[in-house]
Amino acid sequence: MPARDTILDVLCPMHAALSASGHITTAGPTLRKLYPDLTLPGLRFLELVEVSRPRGITGMEELLVHAGRKLHLRLRGGARTALKGVLMPDGQGGAVIDLSFGISVVEAVRDYRLTSADFAATDLTVEMLYLIEAQSAAMGEHRKLNARLQGARIAAEEQAFTDTLTGLRNRRALDQALGRCCAGGRPFALMQLDLDFFKAVNDTLGHAAGDFVLQKVAAILASETREEDLAARVGGDEFLILLPDTTDRKHLADIAARIITRLERPIRFDGQPCRISGSIGIAVAPAAGQIAPGRVMAEADAALYASKHAGRGRYSFYTRGAAPASGAAPAAE
């Protein structure tokens, strides 16, 4: 027949048997786990655990007065884990007290690395642990799903604003960014670029060569603009570049000239040179006051027309109230 201590270890793994003086004679395996560095038998129970309710319990006599009633206790030192307990006399002047964590079981499991094996098989705490584990698993899957959905949403938005051939932004992205600049009244410049002689590349070398040239043009625009600028392909061989907070004409002229110079260098496709150039129209939005997106687009388009009319391979600024002023890129090396 199993000894009493063995029976208590199985049925009440957090029990403590107390002597008439209030010292621990035996302790259950889970209670011992809370004090891994101490040998509990021989220690005074109330030196390890304090009774918070009822108040005023300082010794074994007061504990026995409250036999059979629920006690609210707290571990001394460490994590100060809250406990519930019920004490019953053993008929020999001592008592047996059974302890539980109550609603603090989640913190206790974390702090003391407890498992279901540390509780009685019929303890509802075990069911709670299973529920918590299931909830944690469900929440983990929920977070993973949300992360995947968020990633898919970002990817879809990115795709919706990206030109699939060149990787530049598309007309939709340009319209939104331009609208924000215009509505915010911030100064900016808008460059409109149209490739010269691009149709000849398609006609003589085919559309694969044309697509290759467009990708090379996109790489040039990306390398000649800042991270905060927006380069977009808005048509077959038409590009727009939005440059926020950039209105200095000399700086804009330098950018346009570098782009045109690089475009005039032959692009080789399957051993064949593809020769193009570029015409650019530049509109500068004022530093104060709002301007309609349609108006600044029309101004950049008018400046582009002036560049083409002046002989292509050049840039022009739109000047309100005057004819667009043109400039040619330096001769290509």
TrEMBL record:
Record GO terms (molecular function): catalytic activity
Extent of the signal sequence: none
Gene3D superfamilies (UniProt xref): 3.30.70.270
A Pfam family assignment: GGDEF
Domain annotation GGDEF: ranges: 186-320
InterPro entries found in the cross-reference section: DGC-Regulatory_Protein, GGDEF_dom, Nucleotide_cyclase, Rev_trsase/Diguanyl_cyclase
Database matches in NCBIfam families: GGDEF (TIGR00254)
Stated name of the protein: GGDEF domain-containing protein
